[in-house]
Amino acid sequence: MSNLLTVDEVAERLNVTKDWVWAQVRAGRIPHVPLGRYRRFREEALDAWIQNLEKSKPEPDGSIKDRR
């Protein structure tokens, strides 16, 4: 089983605020695991998400469009 990260840990790793992470969770943009009222993030899923973002083109509204 991979490590599950907290919102605090994800924010620290991405060098963003916790509010930004929560906004991404609510918008369904960042992969997470719901555990009751908690949200956790698999390290591998987060790494894959970041790699996918590197391959994607941002849209004017801030959403991501796949370049493939």
Strand order of the largest sheet: 1-3-2
- Please state the overall shape, judged from the principal axes of the Cα atoms: globular
Mean pLDDT figure: 88
Helix content: 40-55%
Major beta sheet summary: 3 strands, antiparallel
Radius of gyration using CA atoms only: 12 Å
H/E element order: EHHEEHEE
Describe this structure in words.
This protein has 68 residues and is of the alpha+beta class. The chain is 44% helix and 24% strand. The protein has one domain. The strands form two sheets. A three-stranded antiparallel sheet has the order 1-3-2. Helix 1 crosses helix 2. It is globular, with a radius of gyration of 12 Å.
Topology record:
Elements: E1 4-5, H1 7-14, H2 18-27, E2 33-35, E3 38-42, H3 43-54, E4 56-58, E5 64-66
Antiparallel strand pairs: 1-3, 2-3, 4-5
Helix pairs in contact: 1-2
